Structure formats: C-alpha cells, structure tokens
Amino acid sequence: MRITFLALAAAVPIGLTAQSPATIRLANANAELAEEFSDLYAMREIQDGRVLLFDRKEDRFVVADFASSTVRTVSLKGHGPGEYEMMISALLPLGGDSTLAADLNRWLILVGDSVVATLPPDHPAKRSVRLWPLGADGAGRLLARQSKSGGGMRAADSALAVLVDLSSGRADTITGLRNGVRRAEVRQVTAPDGRVGVGIGRVPLNVSEFPLLFSDGWVAVARLDPYRVDWRAPDGRWIPGARLPFPNIRLNDRERSAYAELNRWARNATDWPEFLPPFDTPTQLFASPEGMLLIRRLPSVAQRETRYDVVDRTGALRGQLVLPTNQHIFGFGARSIYLVETDDDGIQRLHRHAWDYRSLRG
C-alpha cells in the first residue's frame, strides 16, 4: 500500500472535562490531489493506496493515485456491461480488494479498479436492500435501513435495521430505528391561473436514527433520546451505550438563521424543533480503521466548526475531531483519513491525513 505513515501523532487531543470532550485536531495533510471536483459523494481506498471516487454532480466514477496525483476513469454512465446507470450511492469493501459499487438501479462488483461483474436490479440482495446499503462486512452481509411502511409522505414513526446476505438476499432484522416524528404539512393550493395543486411544508431537523455496518461485522447505531451509540457484536450481542454529552441549544432566531444559511431549502420553514438535535438527517457516520464510530455533529452559532464525536465500542466518547468549516470527512483508509475541502467557488479538493489511534488514547 503506497502510504507514507507519519511517525508523529496524527491527531492531538487537548483537554478533557466532564462537560467538554477532548479536542482532536489532525496534523497537516501528507498528500493532496491536484484534481478539482464538484460534489464528491462516495469513496473507497483499495489495497495499493489508490482511491475509488464518485462525483455526483459531474457523474464521474474514477480512481485517484495520490503518489502521481493522477485520476483515471473507472466506469462510464450508461446501460452497457461494466457501466453504472444512475448514481453510485456507496463504495463498500467486500473483503480483500473487492468493492461493491451500489448504483441506485444496479450494482457493480470491482476487484481493484476493474469492474468484474454486474448485479441486475432483480438480484435478491438488491431487492432486499431496496435503496442502498449502509455498509458491508467480510462475511458477505450488507446493512439496510428500511421504513416499515416502505416510505412515502406517511412513513412510519420507526424503521428497521436489516442485515442482508449478498449471495442469497436473505434479510434478518436486527433492531428498530426511530424515524423523524414530525410530519410535513400537506395542503391544497390554488395557482393564479386557477390550477389546483398540493403544497408540502418544509420540516427541518426532523432527525432519524441511523446504523452503520463495519467490515468486521460490528454494527453501530446512532440513537436519540438520549443521544448515544449502541453496538451489536457479530454474535448478535448488544452493548447499550451511555448517554453522550451535548449541550441543550434552543433553536432561537439566530440558530434557525444559521442552519438555513447552510441549508437553503429551510429558509422559509416554520416547523422547527425546540432544541438543536445532536446530528442531522441524512446522518453522516464513519467507521475508523480501528473500529470507532465518528458522528458528524450539527454546528451551532457558538461552534461553527465541523465536528465529529469519536465513540468507541463501549459507547464511550473518546474525543471530538474538529475541522475548519470548509472541510469534512470523506472516508477512511487503512491508516489514513480523507478530507474534502470546498473553496468559496464550490470547488472541492481531496486531502489525505495520517490517522493514528494511539494518539487518541488517554
């Protein structure tokens, strides 16, 4: 694997109190791609250190080499063999150097950077997952989050976390998940020319619980009320997490305006929760190489930086990774963390930093 591992600590924890988690800041990047992107959406580091990438806005499925700072096309959008049809929603390791590229319509299987098989829309596992998988493990299982009602405007107040066998499509429900409980107002509206239509209200911060499957078979679930992380071991044993600290921030006018500034669709919303939730939906969860869960926290007026809670498999908070406001985690490799940086013109660049779990130990 062509990765240069820094001997100095890649993340430096600073101070820990009962109310304030240890702050973790990364050392400088050890590599950066010169390539410009528009909307990086999915990634997977393969065994030789190169990275599979999908840019949603540009419809680009490529492999990037940090050593040479080059980018090459892996697959084109289309309906032919080895092509994706709609959008690559996830790039998941299947064991060794195999990758599942989950297109919304059909799936591709890659070895290294080469497409070796195509799974059609009627494949049993694709039918069981329904939308896109939220992780894969070495035992050939995928994780799906499924609404009990199958989706729609009147979705149920809870959903299911389901493990799906990739070969057979057999699905096993492992736990229930809370859906956002507030419902969008639906009302009849009349246009100036007399046509009658339907108006749907905007419901910001209608947060749901989300799971993530790790490559070694563990499942983490980011829970609400109280905010915590529950863990499921590969043998089916559950480890309930303790309440994780986060401040009660009332959603006053300043907080609502700050959220709407980052999420323009919410500018005219009227149905807000009373307090800022710990995370948003869709929830951004990441699996670190040593098996910890990172959860992207919602920014506030007082803390505008990009922050991630780092939670171990006992459910304990090990610290909080803090990044500049224009950076976010894109994914992890064997010993690396990848960050996307977005400039004022909306151009994205990909950085690689060393990630050393030893620097997080207290």
Strand-pairing-aware structural class: mainly beta
State which percent range the strand residues make up. Answer: 35-45%
What multimeric state do the chains show?
single chain
- Give helix and strand order, one letter per element, not per position: EEEEEEEEEEEHEEEEEEEEEHEEEEEEE
Could you tell me the mean pLDDT? 88
Helix content: under 10%
Residue stretches low in confidence (pLDDT < 50, at least 5 long) are 1-18, 150-154
N- and C-termini, Cα separation = 29 Å
Main beta sheet strand tally, sense and closure: 6 strands, mixed
Count of individual helical segments: 2
Shape: globular
Radius of gyration: 21 Å
Q: Trace the largest sheet across and list its strands.
A: 1-2-24-23-22-21
Q: What's the β-strand tally?
A: 27
What does this entry look like structurally?
- The protein is mainly beta and 362 residues long.
- It contains 2 helices and 27 strands.
- It has helices spanning 124-129, 253-262; strands at 11-14, 23-26, 31-32, 40-45, 51-55, 60-65, 70-75, 88-95, 98-103, 107-111, 114-119, 141-147, 158-165, 171-178, 186-190, 196-200, 210-213, 219-223, 228-232, 238-239, 285-287, 293-296, 306-311, 317-323, 327-332, 336-342, 348-354.
- The strands form 7 sheets. Strands 1-2-24-23-22-21 form a 6-stranded mixed sheet, with no helix packed on it. Strands 3-27-26-25 form a 4-stranded antiparallel sheet, with no helix packed on it. Strands 4-5-6-7 form a 4-stranded antiparallel sheet, with no helix packed on it.
- Strand 5 (51-55) and strand 6 (60-65) form a beta hairpin.
- It is globular, with a radius of gyration of 21 Å.
- The model is unreliable at 1-18 and 150-154 (pLDDT under 50).
